Amino acid sequence: MTLQAIKYENGTLEVLDQLLLPKESKYIPILGVEDGWKVINKMQVRGAPAIAIVGCLSLAVEISKEEFEKKKALRREVEGKLNYLISARPTAVNMKQAADHLISYINSLDNDESVSAQEMQARFVAAIEAMLEKDISDNRSIGEFGAKAVLNNVTDGEQVRILTHCNTGSLATAYFGTALGVVRCLHSASRLENCYFTETRPYNQGARLTAYELVHDKIPSTLVCDSTVAYLMKTAQINAVVVGADRVAANGDTANKIGTYQIAVVARHHEVPFYVAAPLTSIDFNVNTGDNIVIEERPQVEMTHINNIRIASPVGKL
Ligand SMILES: CSC[C@H]1O[C@H](OP(=O)(O)O)[C@H](O)[C@@H]1O
């Protein structure tokens, strides 16, 4: 079992094919931007931060193999390929945020006459490589801060029962995770009684990925059907719901995996504190409210089939 979704070293990139988990643990080589776009679009790699990191690293791999005599040629190639990578999946903002930051950075290098084309290429690749460690550092901070926030609402020494949705752990980020990072910190502090997590149809991020992570880390946990969450909050004294985010709008509206909204409504009804654990790279200050967030529509086969086996009778329009 491995929880390293992304393996990168000196211009070589491999990603864990999450479509095969938990049955098979297989790494896919990423030789450039086209490979990066495909693994993101097919959801072999998924999770808002991981999408941005893999997308940008696929560009770093490609750029590292080329030689640029002219700085403007490098800038043009970088801009075009970053904008292409954004198109792989629309809802998570992290790839767009990373692209905007990197385009601004390479423009500053292009405009700095003291920087040669070779230096520009090296500094640009280094800026992308730094995203890996930054994400892990952010996740640990989110985990510690989130655990404190959850524990502020319970009596001293009480062990907590958490509900989470989808996968927001090491398989959705560079490592450690966001909402699952909060769960990891509660467990490390010996304050976690149990983490309930939903199967998260139709891709089954919970049943396939979150289960994989919590078993690996030996964290007390229970897999529940998506349809159980209301009953669970009625009967299991859940202390908090903690979820991730694909995109948070300027007013705090949050787009996350389908099913999150109904969990939030039920949490409100049962007066269970509801937390969104997300890095700054998931916040889009250019979008005023959630109404302006593009919600992804995936192929219907992802609902009607599991491992290429039909589980839903053929019907009309789904
Ligand atoms: C830590 S971000 C996790 C985020 O990504 C998931 O979506 P997907 O598996 O489709 O990429 C889900 O929305 C999670 O909240």
Task: Characterise this structure.
- The protein is an alpha/beta fold and 318 residues long.
- Helices cover 43% and strands 15% of the residues.
- It is built from 10 helices and 13 strands.
- The protein has helices spanning 33-41, 48-64, 71-86, 94-111, 117-151, 179-188, 205-216, 229-235, 260-269, 301-304, and strands at 6-9, 12-16, 27-30, 160-164, 192-198, 221-224, 240-243, 247-249, 254-255, 274-276, 283-284, 305-306, 309-310.
- The strands form 4 sheets. It has a 5-stranded parallel sheet, sandwiched between helices. It has a 3-stranded antiparallel sheet with strand order 1-2-3.
- Strand 12 and strand 13 form a beta hairpin.
- The longest helix is centred in the middle third of the chain and has 35 residues, at 117-151.
- The ligand CSC[C@H]1O[C@H](OP(=O)(O)O)[C@H](O)[C@@H]1O is lined by residues 46-49, 166, 168, 172-173, 178, 205, 244-246, 256-257.
Keyphrases for this structure?
318 residues; alpha/beta; five-stranded parallel beta sheet; three-stranded antiparallel beta sheet; 10 helices; 15% strand; globular; binds the ligand CSC[C@H]1O[C@H](OP(=O)(O)O)[C@H](O)[C@@H]1O
